[in-house]
Amino acid sequence: MSDADTDADAQGRSRPEVTDTPLRVEGVSKHFGGITAVDGATFEVERGTLTGLIGPNGAGKSTTFNLITGMLTPDAGTVSFEGEDITGLEPYEIADRGLVRTFQIARELQEMTVLENMMLAPKGQRGERLWRSVLPVARRGVVDQETELLDRVWEILEFFEIEHLAEEYAGNLSGGQRKLLEMARALLTDPDVLLLDEPFAGVNPTLERRLLDHVHELRDRGYTFLLVEHDMDLIMENCRHVVVMHQGRILTEGTPEEVKTDEEVIEAYLGGDV
Amino acid sequence: MSTADSARQLWEADATKILVVLVAIYATYLLSGLVLGYSLRGQLNSIASLTFYIGVFATLALALNLHWGYTGLFNIGVVGFMAVGIYVMAFVSKPLYGSGGAAQIGGLGLPIPVGILAGMVAAALLGFVVALPALRLRADYLAIVTIAMSEIVRFTFLSSTFQQFQVPHTLAGDWTRVGFGGGSGLILDFPDPLLALIDVLGLSTVYDGLVGLVGTVVPNNPDPIVHSLVYGLVLLGVVAGYFWLLKRTGESPFGRVLKAIREDEDVARALGKNTGRFKIASFMLGCALMGLVGILWLMGQGAVTPNFFRPRLTFFVWIALIIGGAGSNTGSVAGGAIFAAVLYQGPLYFQNLVTSVFQPGDAPGSFGPAVAPLVANLDPVPFLLYTLDSVRQLQLVVMGVVLIWLMHNRPEGMLGHRKETAAAIPLVGRSERSERTDADAVGTDPTPTGDASGGERDE
After folding, report:
1. What pTM did the predictor assign?
2. What ipTM score was computed for the predicted complex, to two decimals?
3. Which of A243, A261, B24, B262 has the CA that lies 20 to 30 A from B247?
4. Looking at the domain assignment, is residue B50 inside a domain?
């Protein structure tokens, strides 16, 4: 993991004038037919923090996520990442810039082993060019890089304590293990900001604790997180900044304490009872 | 290590599985011929055509496996790419019009290798054109586009518009008559490619010696037998080449992305992979390989007609792939071989065998006379003869039944685990890895372990 650490440092140094808010969402809207899924959402994510995005079912959290990561194109508004407008870019272009997401229902690649899943993720793999993978001399370089990657993959697997599953097919993992795999896989892309879509849904309390520990440790190493969650307590305990969505709008945002005492939030989202 | 263990290890190797399948097929053919007293000439001929069909179906299944098994691209236009391959090859390599010979239509008169290359490139480019709009859509739309394309290709070559036309063939602006021959087909009047290849390799004397040798056992005109046997061998070499190429493609970061696209394209895109580029590359490579099979299939047949490329041939390839197991290169070869031996050539071989050994009389001309004796006085012979005579039609029924049975009972095919590891190095456990490299180093030579594992995979 020291690798990822120094990587993050190096990136920090190479971009001295980076802002403190790598991700900005401004006035983003999305309609599906007559339904307004997201209506002028505006918020920012501060570097090196855990930001929570909460709201009841159907509040537009997942849609917002898809709009940020390019899975959907907003009807209005802009998304900018590290000062660059990324609205309407392809998902792979956004991921390539260091804004990487996980999925609400863990989407592991079932008929690939955990190791294959992990090896897929890193950027800049020479062997992704067909000719390099096939031609005899060029393939040496690919083999060398694969050997290096495999070492990194093992480090991350050990960090997430799933190395015993390495040769297992991803389709055979339990729900919680899939969540771990998905987060580990996302981490291998060297992201600056990780968007986690309900990473704790359907995960038992022990594993939830473990996942949270990992998230906190990674945040300490300089990663930035945006977390979609509907478990109120979890967000309140772990995030420094909370954004509350309701019916496609940003209802309010602030520290957990501010949000907790906000009348509107209690009214609309919590039904008056935390 | 016990013998059972080492036997299992041996079975694990891809080459062993393929070899076992091939040996079993050939042994069955030869033995059944031997038992029934089939003539030597008949034996050699059936072995030659068996080898030919094993070769073409194995290569086609391998190419389709890259599309469907690896990338999840639903291509049901295989024949279209084969047709473009051979037609463009013929266009480029047929001798110029008027340079002697009976052909009414000429070509550009370029060497055969240039024609083969042009045919493959044309098939790949057609793949690109087809893929570009279709890959943005869902998988089933690609299927519709590809089958439509294959029919468009067939009708284009059938059309009288392209039957013959003039193109300039020199810089000075001389025009020559070329074309695709329309429905009456195109005579492939370039020199025999196999003999040309043998000539280039300087193996003419060896080949002549072989003809002489076979002549001692089959005195009457041994040349065509040797020719088709050797061509079959060349095709098996091509199968090995395809296998090598596609195994390498699969066992690489490129192949890993293809596999990820097959499993869940959104995930691959969310991890920063430009999946469109990978899909197009994979599709074009597969199409070029299909074009080459089209060339190899028909190049030595003397002529080509558009109606050879009916969609049913595409579905034959699909059956071969499904038998073997989509996602596995080993399975593709085995599936191609089994399809060719059992479903494609098997019934005809059986028919030939029975008729030549037992020499039964003429079969009844229609269903009525075939069934009547069976019902009237329980005489099954006319019915059996009729069945034997209709084996070509029944072949399709049998294929359908096999397909349905497979879909119900073994949808993953014989070897279809889709689990051939997609990486340029073996993905093994950490401790195992160091153990294995240690063992290698001890077993082979004292080079540094890192070097040993790196170099060894790269042969």
Report:
1. 0.87
2. 0.86
3. B24
4. yes
